[in-house]
Batch of 2 targets.
Target 1
Amino acid sequence: MFGFPSIAKTLSGRGICVAFVVLLVFPALGAADESSPESAMVIRVRIRAVRALGLTHPTQLKTGVVLGAAMPLPQISPALEDISEKLKALNYREYKVASSQEVLVPLMKKRTVYLHEGNMLLVRPLYADGGNIGLWLRWIDGAGTRVLDTRMHFHERETMLTGTELTGADGRVGEAATVLAIDVSAAPM
Amino acid sequence: MNELKTTASDAKDVIRPQSALSVRQEVLLVAFHDGECGMFDTLRARYLLRRSASARAFIKSVESADAAYRAHARQVERDCNVDLWDRISARIQAEKHAEVFLGQRTYSAPAAASESVWSIAEWRSRFAWGASGAAFASVLAMALVQGGYIGGTAPGIAALASRSGSQGLIPSATQVSYAGAGTSAGAGIRAVDPIEMDWMRSEGRVQVLHPPSERTSIIWVRPRAQGQGGASNDSPQRVPRLSRSNSRIPIAIPAAGR
């Protein structure tokens, strides 16, 4: 009933045309994919480690809307001007650049970036699709604590901030903080 | 006989034990029997036959063997000489009789194909199968690539990323979007770009903050105090926890507030 001759007869007309088109199109797509810029692309990862000092509000992070007007403006290093608005939302008086590094990492390659005071950031770009970049991140602080381990999807030309509170010499938590400003962009190899 | 002659010529005058004649004499007699001797050898063979009883017995044995061989050859010729046309004509008659009762016999496809192996119909059939198979394989490969099982897209990389040191994946991408933090959450509600993440893990407590004047979020991690469990001491019931694959390292999901 579904023998070879009947199927061949069914496919002989329209099936041949469709199959022929598919045979022509898909190898072309494959070749285009191989020669796509993504295959010869590295991800530029810029990491700025910011040291935040002087907790202004002992209990919570301010939001700017409620408390920002009443607070004195924080001192922000000129190198952090592009993220000053974000930093102002945090609850510290002073922001200094502790370290700034920029690494080029090929896709699917893991790179360890050593920051200040034993902080370490492991990055692995996963993909770059248009303006979106997938990145695996692992932030390990000087004490070996895994502060953050995530896989995120970044938008290009946007800075992602992540931070953690530090424990002071007197044992108080939160008097200082480390903030990482991470910029990700795709660049041709 | 010729073969025997050639072989015997090398043996010279060797006398075989069961015969009084030498090999050369036997070869001479065989050649005389076959009529292959010249004048001088014919005289020699006749002289030998007159003088030797063994030669006469040998020539008689050769004649009897020759007669037996000829008889056998004639028998084989009779057996092998079959008249095929009788069989063919009989088959034709049988087919004609069968056609009356069973209808005309139609030729099967292989017989037709054997006549024109490279006909257009045969080509189309073969090409249709080959092209269909190739198309199916291409579509399947593209589906796998688009689905992320092959290549470098995000779902396919989940396994690689998990092997690279991350455990306990949340299978689908998670979009975390919270407006504000703490008591001012209501005041900070606005349109923001959500943070897209597949999973997140931390040894501290994670908060996602949205500065009101910014469109992006800040991931803030508060270190866990010594002796503090998976939840906060001040509000343990407010820390949502989806699952815990490792008791030491809980899966951290952003808390809406503290």
Target 2
Amino acid sequence: MSRLLVCPPEFFQIDYEINPWMRRTNAVVPSRAVSQWQTLMTVLERDVGAGIERMPPVEGLPDLVFTANAGVVVGRRALVSRFRYPERQREEVYFERWFRGQGYEVLTLEKTHYFEGAGDLLGFPDTWFGGYRQRTDIRSFPTLSELFQREIIPLELIDGRFYHLDTCFCPLSGGELLYFPAAFDSYGLAAISERIPAERRIAVPEGEAIRFACNAVCVGKQVVIPAGCPHTMQSLHDRGYRTHAVELDEFMKSGGAAKCLTLALD
Amino acid sequence: MTPSQETVLLQGHIIDSLILAKVLDTIVMMGGTFDLQDVKIGATREAPSQARIVIRAPSSRALADILRAIQPHGAALEREADCRFESAPAAGILPEEFYATTHLPTQIRLDGEWVDVEGIEMDLAICVDPAKAQARTIPMGAVKAGDLIVTGREGIRVTPLARPAERDVFGFMESIVSSERPHQPVIADIAQRMQTLRERYRQGHPAAKVLCAGGPAIVHAGGRDVLTWLIEAGYIHVLFCGNALAAHDMEAALYGTSLGYGLTAGRSVPHGHEHHLRTINRIRAIGSIEQAVQSGLVTEGIMAACVRRNVKMVLAGTIRDDGPLPGVVTDSMQAQQAMREEVQGVGLALLVASTLHAIATGNLLPATVPTVCVDVNPSVPTKLADRGSFQAVGLVMDAASFLKELARTLGWRP
């Protein structure tokens, strides 16, 4: 069973602006946020069959809900993120504490190399892809590659709206890739094509990319996807996936959706 | 602006991701050039690769822009160390690990700053003054006890020559020596350079001097008049030669012979073999070549032109010299030092018909000085060309033919 780390949105709000989606004037409606999050949990647990691990929220850390950025977990080893912005650096200690409390072997990177966890490191069983430039420093990848004995293909993120790799790139369990090509440069697209043949690549239209179609959670043949992405859902159905649309617009105000709200533990 | 360079390291999965390609493309698109010094490909798919890239740009500003553009893709400046140096243990003795120079522009890193090494010349050591942040080359024999001498290879960088802006025979950056190559266009390019340098020399520009290092074959072969003309016309500013060139030139002035052969008749003259000895004896009696010219004893020829035009002369003696003439430096190390001083500010070197002086001068010149080596024996220009890719042109031809063609291009009429 897939286990996912989540953090309830009790203190979720927009206190600062560190990506193009965030506007302090565009306030989160707390009751809607809580109810959307609860719906997501229900879908993940009941419909998808994922195991959910909840970590306690912390007042004053509104983005702690986005557990995808906690770090990256492989087996019993957890590498904790180093956030680029001071606003989120304060989350590091809580994520680390949770990993230690659960008995993970905790790894850390050099202080000078930013790395924002599973938000910027996604992959298939043999090859991982790393998003860089917006948040993660490309120089963190050789260390990660060595620690986890995986090839990591760096992909430059060229559009500030898609500031983490998981906002424009979503590997699926059957080896397909859901992605928004315009978020990458020609070098990145060539590197992707080299590893993933055309028939396995599902390009998301821009109208759905900005609805966070790529910020989906795939467990087996089930895909949990933000609501409002019919074209993407159809493409997934065509390839034999079951889709679950969840309204997550309160979290999109902060630049995140389904994937950002979870961290795969296994 | 002087070209700038910096070395960066790029590591990770840089090949399949095309990160290396992106970095190299960026360098070129921004007007830089690169050398991939070593690329280590990861042994397995998981293992990262590494590339060491030397980046050159036309200016330090352009270089900074390039570095700023490639840094986000992981190109990290190679951690450079300061150069190491040690005290010379005794006069004339270098520290065991001393760094031996090349004839290419060289910099050393002192206290985090790159400092140009002055007096670039091959096969010397580098002496540093850390307090003044200065460095200059020093010959082994000139070292004093306690001089700080650069050791090892860290913190030293040598800049390969940039292709010169001029599109002439020196611009090809190759040292071709060929007896089949047509001489005329090469000589035309040399003449063009000499025209420019004469103008620059008159205006007091640095590195505008033309040096001629020549052998006595210039006189024997009939090149004396044209070389005299080139000096009189202000095209040559420094002359390196031995006892023989000077002696035979003045022998011609006094007796009309060169090593006893009548220069006009081309026949040996009775007792002609004594002429050069008598010449040397008369100059010795008068005290110096300068006095011989000024007193009116020697009225024409290469030496007379040099004295009248105030051309710097270094006469270096050899083991077989007769006399020698006054002014000939018979201590080889002193002669070498005198030549070293006179190559400063040279912008073109003509090495004509003298193995000894051509090789000695070639060794003293930085690679940045365009050099022409003319000899009927191809081994001389070849030997010089073999020293590396500097701006050298070798011409396999007779000295007098070369000088006449050169002078004719510059306006000399027989």
